[in-house]
Amino acid sequence: MHQPPHSTSTAKSKHRPPPEAVDTHTLRAGLKGIAVFEAVKGAFVLAAGFGLLTLLNKDAVEVAEHWVRKLHMNPAWHLSRVFLDAAENVTDGQLWAAAAGGLAYSTVRFVEAYGLWNARVWAEWFPLLSGGLYLPWEIYEVGLHPSPLKWGIFLTNLAVVLYMLYIRVKASQPVPDD
Questions:
Q1: Exposure pattern of 121-160 as b/e (b: 16+ CB <10 Å)?
Q2: What is the chain's mean pLDDT, rounded?
Q3: What is the pLDDT of residue 99?
Q4: Which DSSP letter does residue 174 get?
Q5: 22: phi then psi, degrees, rounded to nearest 5
């Protein structure tokens, strides 16, 4: 077998080989923790999508008013008004579209969770890239209207992104000589 002049069969590379299908270098506990977090997000959005479908052919304003009362919310509060105003203008088509969007989001989260749970290298990019896309909006929201919930979401997302960045950078480092 003829080999190109620039490579030799005895030369040792100090870099890891091309990405493996399974990450054998990262502790599974961290990946599994993020997998559970992503699966819970997917399940929550999927449940919300199904909840939206229960509003089809119903008086959405009546349902919204019921929940505002049940949750002891002041109807004059901004969040209550946003909720009630949205209910006044929602159509069945918009409910179907929102439910479909929720299904798509949930599918991505479930695929990501599966991949992370099974330590698939391709899945390590999901939380890094998607979480990185959310960070500017979360920083904006925390700066505009800080609240413990917004800080919690921001800091959790930041921790996930930094952890996944650490994993991917570590994977690209040269392998130490034995």
A1: bebbbbbbebbeebeeebeebeeeeeeeebeeebeebbeb
A2: 85
A3: 94
A4: B
A5: -120, 135
* Burial class for 96, CB neighbours closer than 10 Å (0-12, 13-18, 19+): middle
Dihedral angle sign, alpha carbons of residues 94, 95, 101, 105? positive
Structural domain contains residue 145: yes
Pair of tokens at residue 142: 């925390």
Give the model's pLDDT for residue 22: 76
In a domain, 100, yes or no: no
User: Exposed, middle or buried: residue 164 (CB in 10 Å: 0-12, 13-18, 19+)?
Assistant: buried
Over the stretch 107-127, which tens digit does the pLDDT of each residue have? 999 999 999 999 898 899 989
Query: What was the pLDDT predicted at 162?
Result: 95
Buried b / exposed e over 23-62, threshold 16 CB at 10 Å, is beebeeeebeebbebbbebbeebbeebeebeebeeeebee
In a domain, 27, yes or no: no
Task: Provide the number of structural domains found in the chain.
Answer: 1
CB atoms within 10 A of CB 118: 15
167 assigned to some structural domain: yes
Which domain range does residue 147 map to? 121-172
